[in-house]
Amino acid sequence: MSDREHGPQHPGDACAGARLHIVTGKGGTGKTTIAAALAQALAADGGRVLLVEVEGRQGVATLLGSPPLPYEEREMLSVPGGGSVSVLAADAEAALLEYLEMFYGMRRAGQALNRLGAVDFATTIAPGLRDVLLTGKATEAVRRRRGARRRPSAADPSAPFHYDAVVMDAPPTGRISQFLNVNSEVAGLARVGPIRNHADKVMEVIRSDRTLVHFVTLLEEMPAQETRDGIAEISELGLAAGMVLVNMARPPLLDDASLEAAASGGPDLDALAAGFGEARVENPRELAASLAGEVRGHALRVRLERRVRSDLEDLGRPLLELPLLAGGVDRAALDELTRRLAEQGVRR
């Protein structure tokens, strides 16, 4: 039996054995940061991982403090134990030119089409074509064997995979089901022929048991609701939901009894004011009222977060939590998030 059939010992063990990890989440949840941390965690102990960005925002470059990345797989991160993470800022137009060259030897023709604006025109009027090209690039990297960089179809099937895992920083949750349902998206473009065949190969990878869609959320109602809706939508498409990754989690500052008392009525204002008065603090009553409001607000937030967390647990997916890190996200913070994922069982 596989680890999944046995049931994971740790929540993150549920992603072990997957080769394509698709990371989505509502805007503002830190999706790109978590995708990068996941890529690093999967590269532990000598793994080779590709992190693919498909939105054209250059979010990974910004995260790593790098200039905008070209359309090429570039090793960007070294991981303790000999692992590495390469990054690809995928671009639909460049992917189409590469596709024409790789499968049809049409490099010059593709360049001519690009100069005429035909490539940009085609991907603009046919969003489904754009999506199948972007997902196709990620799935080609999943299938690629070592020694077959340019022509995957000619690869030795016994050769090891070029990458041990591929992580896709995918579009937000509100668009993820449309983005991944490439067969439906290209149905109006081509029912037969090379585009349709390409879409079928893409869906073969996306629907396989080696692909998981992970959802990044916050302990807030809107991103949590989008997570619930997103999981339901991809399940209807026959795709597998992976982990629910709660980002920017904050620990409570008070014990449960104090939190309940504060949420129910707030701290004793008279007692606080008297204490400030004894400490000879100026405007003790005003300061007490301000502090009481802060304490009650914190208690109500913790109550809401616990309810949201309970609702997320009811989804039946592995739930991992990552802390809110003071000072923003830099390389040290990214390494800390990677460590937290590893502690919760994330591995290849």
Automatic annotation (TrEMBL):
SUPFAM superfamilies: P-loop containing nucleoside triphosphate hydrolases. InterPro entries: ATPase_ArsA/GET3, CobQ/CobB/MinD/ParA_Nub-bd_dom, D-isomer_DH_CS, P-loop_NTPase. Residues 22-55 form the CobQ/CobB/MinD/ParA nucleotide binding domain. It comes from the Bacteria. Gene3D superfamilies: P-loop containing nucleotide triphosphate hydrolases (3.40.50.300). Pfam families: CbiA (PF01656). This is AAA family ATPase.
